[in-house]
Design a protein that fits this description.
about 190 residues, mainly alpha, Hypothetical protein af1432, two-stranded antiparallel sheet, binds fe (ii) ion
Length: about 190
């Protein structure tokens, strides 16, 4: 795995993960009114407020870390490019977290495609940027794809993460900062 500067990205500690979020997360988040870091903190907070497990809180905090691993810029979808950030994030973290963290991260884009099929109100409530990337990501699932998705481990957790992801775009919302999550990440780290 390489970071956006082309250097090998090693994550020997939770501190490295937090540094990556702080260092790269200050950029605008793909047409949304929040930065990647603000978006990640809001997503983690919403999962926590909803009584989510520690592993899902961690997944929410880290779900978009793959966006910090490519250099395509926030207009990638406008250029017709799917950066597959969910796979980049999974690859970066896979040696260090259990499947209960990794699977929802890897599946949070599939969960969007699933919700487009299963929730009739979902698509109309999606942000402009999320709709823009949807077709590049495969568009809404069909019934067979949805059935296969639900059979995957942690698919329902991925849907819960996706709900928090979609809500976590509130400009100026004050939420707890990264240090609140350090102990959770440490407890899951391996
Ligand atoms: Fe996100």
């Amino acid at each position: 795995m390489r970071n956006k500067n082309g250097a090998a990205a090693a994550l020997p500690s939770v501190n490295e993960v937090l540094s990556l979020l702080v260092g790269g997360g200050g950029h605008a988040y793909f047409g949304e009114p929040v930065t990647v870091l603000e978006h990640s903190l809001q997503a983690a907070w919403f999962v926590r407020q909803n009584g989510g497990e520690s592993s899902l809180i961690a997944a929410a905090l880290l779900h978009d870390i793959g966006h910090l691993m490519h250099s395509e810029g926030e207009d990638a979808a406008k250029r017709g490019l799917d950066t597959q950030h969910e796979e980049l994030g999974f690859a970066l973290l896979e040696d260090h977290f259990p499947p209960s963290v990794l699977d929802p991260i890897r599946l949070h884009v599939a969960a969007k495609r699933f919700l487009c099929l299963s929730d009739s109100d979902y698509l109309s409530a999606l942000s402009y940027a999320s709709v823009e990337s949807l077709e590049l990501q495969g568009g809404p699932m069909n019934d067979a794809e949805a059935e296969a998705f639900l059979a995957l481990p942690h698919a329902r957790e991925a849907v819960a993460l996706r709900r928090a992801d979609d809500a976590a775009k509130v400009q100026g919302l004050a939420v707890p900062q990264l240090d609140v999550y350090r102990a959770i990440l440490e407890s899951l780290w391996r």
